[in-house]
Design a protein that fits this description.
The protein has about 240 residues and is mainly α. It is about 50% helix and about 10% strand.
Length: about 240
């Protein structure tokens, strides 16, 4: 049985892998599971998540926070610099790693199809890119936008709409499983609206896209009009 990497070695290899997995971009979310595919030596399956938190604490990754806990991560400039230095010490080149693991990427418009969260397998937002072989997609953060005073009202109204859809069963039975997959994203989206600033890509993915998905499926006219109003309000927030 091949010995596992020491954890301190894994941390360095994982940072290199994170940088390569997002093409050295500092505005693209890092997927821990996908980055770990770049490491060929054995390691414990619990290490990638632990490494993400440790690298964030050391300023090499940046966390986007929900309820005081980091939920999403992207590479910092300092992290990219450190990754390049570590790779050079190992006789590696980040661009070569990127090329070696390159896979076809397509960009599509919203399809309304469900995307299991947080592992993205199918594109349902124009700010996303999806890998054709079904591996996790990348989510572009986009610009950091300042939220308007209406954000809290939108959050409150979304909560009321979700509760009504749930209690009054305002979706066809066939759509219920997919709707349950959207609910965690909506809750994260509502929490994002409590911040002073938010990345446009996160707001689009977590809140706007699920609202767009549910809009044509709501069976009650009055509630459909309310969802349509919230879609328009969220679009305005994204344009801020």
């Amino acid at each position: 049985m091949k010995k596992r990497l020491p954890f301190h070695t894994f941390i360095d290899e994982f940072l290199i892998a994170c940088a390569a997995s997002v093409d050295k971009k500092t505005n693209t979310l890092v997927d821990a599971g996908f980055a770990a595919r770049y490491i060929s030596d054995p390691f414990d399956e619990s290490w990638p998540d632990s490494a993400m938190k440790l690298l964030c604490n050391n300023g090499l990754l940046r966390g986007s926070y929900t309820l005081g806990k980091p939920t999403f991560y992207n590479l910092t400039g300092e992290g990219l610099l450190r990754a390049e230095v570590l790779a050079a010490k190992r006789g590696k080149d980040l661009d070569d790693l990127i090329e070696a693991h390159a896979r076809p990427v397509t960009r599509k418009q919203a399809t309304g199809e469900i995307v299991p969260f947080p592992i993205l397998r199918q594109l349902d937002s124009p700010v996303l890119s999806v890998r054709e072989d079904g591996l996790p997609a990348t989510l572009t953060l986009g610009p950091l936008i300042a939220l308007r005073g209406t954000a809290k009202t939108v959050s409150r109204d979304v909560k009321a709409v979700v509760a009504a859809i749930q209690t009054e069963r305002l979706l066809p039975e066939a759509d219920q499983p997919e709707w349950s997959e959207h609910l965690p994203r909506i809750e994260i989206g509502r929490n994002l609206l409590k911040a002073a600033q938010v990345y446009e890509g996160l707001l689009h993915f977590c809140l706007l896209s699920p609202l767009q998905w549910v809009l044509p499926r709501v069976t009650q006219d009055g509630m459909r009009e309310e969802v349509e109003r919230l879609v328009a309000a969220t679009e305005r927030l994204c344009e801020a």
